[in-house]
Amino acid sequence: MDSLLEKLQLDDLEDDQRELAECIGMEAYRKLVENYAGSSIYIGKPDRIAISVRDNMIRADFNGYNYSELRKKYSLSESTIRRITSPVLTAAKAAPFPGQISLFDKDTKI
Fold this sequence. Notes:
By secondary structure, this protein is mainly alpha-helical. Helix content is 61%, strand content 0%. The protein folds into two domains: 7-36, no CATH class; 46-94, Arc Repressor Mutant, subunit A, CATH 1.10.10. The chain is built from seven helices and no strands. The radius of gyration is 25 Å and the shape is elongated.
C-alpha cells in the first residue's frame, strides 16, 4: 500500500483532498494520510493557535510594573495581563536575592 501512496499525484485526488494537497504540498499530504487516514483532525483558528506566542512575548516584555503599558500594547485587559504574567512574578518572588547564600548549597561554607 505504501508504494501506491508514493505514486499518488495531485490529479488522482478529488475536491477537498486535492485542495488540501495543494495547500500543504504532496509530500506533506502523503505524510498526513499515512498518520491520520480515516480520523477527524481539528485545525484551530490562527488567533487561538498564536495565543502562546503572544503570551510569551508579554512575559518577555514584563518588567514587574508595566501592566498598563502591556495592556495598551496588546489590547488586553489589565487582569488578563496580570494572569499571563503571574508565573513571572511567582518565579521572581521565589528566586534568591543576588549573592544570597542557600543553606542547601553543598559548596557553601558558613
